[in-house]
Specification:
The protein is of the alpha+beta class. The protein contains seven helices and 22 strands. Bound molecules: zinc ion.
């Protein structure tokens, strides 16, 4: 490589490589935890865990160990090509690179809500591509059907909570239409598909054509994937590593997404969904609570209150709102004493911070929400010349 070219490569590629190797960004676990509650195909054995040992030993140390057993196809899991393709790769034969790649996410939750047997179509792909560009070769395509929040309620999630052969006829959940599968093979050459239902074919399928098409072309399937609603449309990486079962047709899977800070856009309410929950901050004098819930695809509603610990009295309370309008996000804060809410505009966003500003307001002028960890949030409240304070919140457990 000549010097000019290598310099150019360094300038244009280096920041991205740097960001990724330092893992500056956020991780999202797309895996349901395995337990007796995990959903398995009606004809497959469920997850079982038994205790070998648990407790303090006579020698004085603590010791725990368990046995578990389960079918390949249940919980968050991989379908290897051999599942529907004689001679296809078994779990241990899939090259490790195929488990890792750039992710794209297409949402069909609205359609799947109206029809639990909805089949993801070529039109859904083309509609997404019109906005985000064509799905690149080697991508991992994830489809959010909005089913993840129904987990682990079998009846809601897959249409029946019955087990055995007869239950298969009662299955009802969204999947991928065979035409879309053919399109992905012929025109897009993806590595893998994943979705938040028990099967890549819809619940009513009897021939599993989408399985036959995709696995017959060596594409992988990830089923019962979780938390897809937390992903942006693109610009993230997927790492999906299964248990390496020799000759396996499928396997339990740990699948995670990484969203590099540079790629994290937050002009959508979805990309701010990490705020949802209850955040608490306690100092010797003050107790501050801020909680958020998602009320629609474009709105988060929040509540904030500050209490004096000594006086045991609420000093101030406010209602908050984050609204997405015409591709922009606004933060509205309303205290009882004011007639109108104070608006702040989202001006900058990185993977770990969202900046809201209102230069015309006396105090504060700026709010910086820093996402430190899944259970840690810092809010920097500043006025002119950067004067202000920081509130360090901890997420209330389970919120
Ligand atoms: Zn499967």
């Amino acid at each position: 490589m000549d010097k000019v070219l290598s310099l150019l490569v360094l300038i244009f590629v280096a920041p991205f490589v740097f960001a990724e190797t330092n893992f500056d960004g956020r991780w999202i676990d797309l895996t349901h935890a395995f337990s007796e509650e995990s959903i398995y195909w009606p004809t497959a054995d469920s997850f079982k865990k038994t205790t070998v040992a648990e407790g303090d030993t006579e020698a004085g140390y603590y010791y725990s160990a368990y046995n578990f057993s389960a079918a390949e196809h249940g919980g968050t899991h991989l379908d290897a090509p051999i599942h529907f393709f004689k001679g296809g790769n078994s779990v241990d034969q899939v090259p490790v690179e195929q488990f890792i790649g750039n992710g794209v996410l297409i949402r069909i939750a609205e359609k799947a809500k109206l029809n639990r047997n909805y089949q993801f179509s070529v039109a859904d792909i083309l509609k997404w591509e019109k906005q985000h560009g064509a799905i690149e070769e080697g991508s991992i395509l994830l489809i959010d059907t909005g089913s993840s929040h129904l987990w682990p309620d079998m009846k809601k999630y897959m249409g029946t909570d019955e087990r055995g052969e007869a239950a298969v006829g009662k299955l009802k959940f969204p999947g991928i239409h065979p035409d879309a599968a053919n399109f992905l093979i012929a025109k897009r050459k993806i590595k893998a598909v994943g979705l938040d239902t028990p099967s890549i074919d819809y619940g009513g399928s009897r021939l599993f054509k989408t399985h036959q098409i995709l696995y017959g072309n060596n594409v992988l399937g990830f089923e019962n994937v979780a938390n897809l609603d937390k992903l942006p449309a693109k610009g993230f990486m997927i790492i999906a590593l299964p248990m390496k079962i020799k000759g396996g047709s499928g396997a339990p899977l740990r699948i995670v997404a990484f969203i590099p800070a540079y790629a994290d856009v937050c002009n959508t309410i979805n990309s701010l969904s990490w705020l949802v929950g209850s955040w608490h901050s306690k100092t010797p004098t003050l107790e501050i609570v801020e909680s958020w819930k998602q009320v629609s695809t474009s709105t988060l509603e929040g509540r904030g209150s500050t209490r004096s610990v000594k006086k045991d009295k609420v000093l101030s309370a406010e209602t908050l709102r984050l609204v997405e309008m015409s591709g922009e996000v606004f933060f509205l804060a309303k205290v009882a004493s004011n007639n109108m809410p104070v608006p702040f505009k989202l001006t900058k966003c990185t993977g770990s911070s969202a900046f809201f500003e209102n230069p015309k307001h006396d105090f504060p002028k700026k709010l910086e929400y820093q996402f430190i960890a899944p259970d840690k949030l810092s809010v920097l409240v500043t006025g002119s010349e950067g004067k202000g304070f920081t509130i360090d919140y901890t997420r209330l457990e389970g919120s």
